[in-house]
Amino acid sequence: MSGYSELRDLGVRFVSPDGPMLIASAREPLFRASWTSTVELLAGELRHLEAEGIAIELDMEERMFRLDGLPRSDARARSDGVRLSFSSKWGPLRYETAEFTGRWGEPGWQQNVRAIALSMEALRAVDRYGVSKRGEQYRGWKALSTGTDPADSIATPEIARRFLARWGQGINDTVEAQLNRAIRATHPDTGGDSDEFRKVMRARELVA
Question: What are 6-28's pLDDT values in tens digits?
């Protein structure tokens, strides 16, 4: 599918949302750019953050996604909301917006992906001045604990498979391979996030 190759190379998976999406603001976009340029910008920012387990949640039904995790060419979203989550060198990060609506023939969710990519670019710019040396500007975007076991969000085999799909690599990939990558990426002994690791372990129980 045109415009998606860089995201595919990074192992990005497009999935249905795990929870409610933000209510759209229906604001007209402030920018005009091709989807290809948006993908290039987002991919560059994800590489800078050494992102792994990347998932882009779109408000679409499961049938709107292809087997390789990309939206179908005729995919239609129920709303324009987008949620991006991944593990990074600064810990787990999550960005979400439903600020913009579609325009110039592009769906609103693509406009919101660009809004997230531009926000990530702006955060990275803080590093230029030497004040931020340990990713301090990203702390407000970390996935915060709710005080409950984070593994509780992985409640069914379907959710477990969707969660593990973040570590998918192609059409012929297996759940077992995704699970092995997820364990390596999130294990606390190798610098992974303990909450994400607990989710992976819960997912392993459900798909075994």
Answer: 888 888 888 888 777 777 677 78
Mark whether 89 and 161 lie in a shared domain.
Answer: no
Q: Among 141, 174, 192, give the residue marking a domain's end.
A: 141
Global confidence as pTM: 0.65
Domain region containing 172: 150-207
Say yes or no: 137 and 155 in one domain: no
The pLDDT tens digits for 83-113 are 998 888 888 888 999 888 877 668 889 999 9
Identify whether residues 25 and 43 lie together within a single domain. yes
Q: What does the DSSP assignment read for the chain?
A: -TT-HHHHHTT-EEE--SSPPPPP--BPPS----HHHHHHHHHHHHHHTT-EEEEEEES--GGGB-TTSPBPTT---SS--EEEEEEETTEEEEEEE--B--BTTB-HHHHHHHHHHHHHHHHHHGGGGTS-SS-GGGGGGB----SS-GGGG--SHHHHHHHHGGG--STT--HHHHHHHHHHHH-GGGT--HHHHHHHHHHHHHH-
